[in-house]
């Protein structure tokens, strides 16, 4: 069952919370959406966006919207994700200018995206609502696509690490399991083994070994590459668990979950895992500064600045 509507505003209206006598499992997707909407309060404009040294405006931060919406979706058994994205407009404008006898040109990039979000009844996955939203991005550098996507969506920890469809891409935690800061050796070994088998497209032999098909040198190379990311994941487990509890947003080079679900090669899976671990290495929001690679201070500072510039960190989530 699917219904499609269009929504061109992102600010949620304040409403009086309502209670429903029905248990979430008995509600259809429309009833769940109504109940969730009734509990979501107005999201304050806590983000300051600088236009120039003297001009700025207030905006709703992406993280504030997600923190207001996701817990209530979980309460009512709603799972939402971007199912498709279409570029409506992608243009570059060049503006000439002259100052003190010097002529120059400034190029501004503009992108408009239409993203379809799917809100699914987790107790009846074939029942969902599709909603189309729009995001515009304008920048004088190459960040217009990122800005447009910021207004559309953000992938979060539970989207990746509590998602059976991504078992071959990321180590998985059961959606209902009690998260622990420290796991036993047996629990960690089982989680790592399951991940490695799926990531390497291998199998487990009767003796409990992991068997991977392919040329020995190529297999060895893939195993060595995975070793680095999985060691970082295990060593940073307390911060990984903390990020899962908060369902923290991540900066990743993927527009939708489907892109990750379609990742089949080991190289692609390693790339995705590295992108996540870079968040734990450089993202101040996760409280994990230099906790993965243990770089020397100069190298860490240089790489952190490069990472922030690449993902647009200061523009997207930094709060005033």
Task: Please give a structural write-up.
The chain is 38% helix and 22% strand. It is built from 11 helices and 8 strands. 22% of the residues are buried. The protein is globular. The longest helix is centred in the C-terminal third of the chain and has 20 residues, at 216-235. A hairpin with a 2-residue loop joins β4 (78-99) and β5. Residues 1-21, 140-153 and 315-320 have low confidence and may be disordered. It has helices at 29-39, 62-75, 144-150, 157-161, 185-199, 216-235, 237-246, 257-261, 266-282, 297-311, 313-316; strands spanning 4-6, 47-50, 56-59, 78-99, 102-121, 128-139, 203-204, 210-211. The chain has a 4-stranded mixed beta sheet with strand order 1-6-5-4. Strands 2-3 form a two-stranded antiparallel sheet. Strands 7-8 form a two-stranded antiparallel sheet. The protein has 320 residues and is an alpha+beta fold. α1 (29-39) crosses α2 (62-75) and α6 runs parallel beside α9.
- Largest sheet strand order: 1-6-5-4
Radius of gyration: 22 Å
Per the principal axes of the C-alpha atoms, what is the gross shape? globular
Low-confidence stretches: 1-21, 140-153, 315-320
SSE sequence, one letter per element? EHEEHEEEHHHEEHHHHHH
The counted number of beta strands is 8
User: Count of helical segments?
Assistant: 11
- What's the average pLDDT? 75
Biggest sheet record: 4 strands, mixed
* DSSP strand content: 15-25%
The structural class is alpha+beta
Distance between the termini: 43 Å
Helical proportion, percent range: 25-40%
